[in-house]
Write a structure and sequence with these properties.
The chain is built from five helices and seven strands. The longest helix is centred in the first third of the chain and has 26 residues, at 2-27. The chain has helices spanning 2-27, 49-62, 107-111, 116-127, 158-167; strands at residues 36-44, 66-70, 79-84, 89-92, 101-106, 181-184, 194-195. Helix 2 (49-62) packs across helix 4 (116-127). It is of the alpha/beta class and 196 residues long. Strands 2-1-3-5-4-6-7 form a seven-stranded mixed β-sheet. Helices cover 34% and strands 18% of the residues. Ca(2+) binds at residues 115, 117. Keywords: Calcium, Disulfide bond, Hydrolase, Metal-binding, Metalloprotease, Protease, Secreted, Signal, Zinc. It is an enzyme of class 3 (hydrolase). One of its GO terms (biological process) is proteolysis.
């Protein structure tokens, strides 16, 4: 009987050690993909500087796989913001490092009563690969002008943030598309999109 107790005493720690090893192997965290950093240049954005800063902050707060940061080297940004007198228009992404995205923040939409920060955040959503959904509610950023001038929401909803995270989940691709579609957002009753 003493030999059996001694055998069990030796066996229990060995079993617990094996169990602990199995548990720690299963609880090891999975490799997290590297966050894609996109740089932007807002030097030619003029009066849009404040709305751009807030729009970028809203996106950085909402997503995990991509981060937007101002460029430290002019001329080397992955995409640029610029103030224009026409309608907002943007390169439809997702744009990746080394890309050539362009966000034209048209004054015409603001003149019609639309919120500048919502416009900047919406156009940034195009850079991140989101299409328009004008029939969506105000809580959906990519509904753009659809909900009307009273809508000032400039934050992406959970589904939009999840789609952007999915767009950047694999990191930076080795092959990037050479053809970019440009989305022209006419923030009024008229809608059109174009490809360049």
């Amino acid at each position: 009987m003493i030999k059996q107790i001694a055998a069990l005493t030796a066996l229990v720690p060995a079993m617990l050690g094996a169990t602990a090893d199995v548990a720690s192997a299963h609880s090891a965290p999975h490799a997290t993909p590297a966050v894609v950093t996109l740089t932007y240049d807002a030097a030619n954005a003029g009066q849009w500087a404040g709305p751009i800063q807030q729009a970028v902050q809203n996106w950085n707060d909402a997503v995990h796989n991509v981060r937007l940061e101002p460029t430290s080297t002019p001329g080397s940004a992955d995409y640029v913001y610029e103030a224009t007198s026409g309608w907002p228009q943007t390169t439809l992404g997702p744009i990746f490092p080394g890309g050539s995205g362009d966000v034209q923040l048209g004054r015409q939409a603001v003149d019609e009563g639309y919120d500048a920060t919502r416009i900047a955040a919406h156009e940034t959503g195009h850079i991140l690969g989101l299409p328009d959904d004008y029939s969506g509610p105000c809580s959906e950023l990519m509904s753009g002008h659809g909900p009307g001038t009273s809508c000032t929401n400039a934050k992406p909803d959970a589904a939009e943030a999840a789609q952007v995270d999915k767009n950047y989940a694999a990191g930076t691709p080795t092959v990037r598309p050479h053809h970019h579609q440009v989305v022209i957002d006419v923030w009024s009753g008229r809608m059109r999109t174009g490809s360049h």
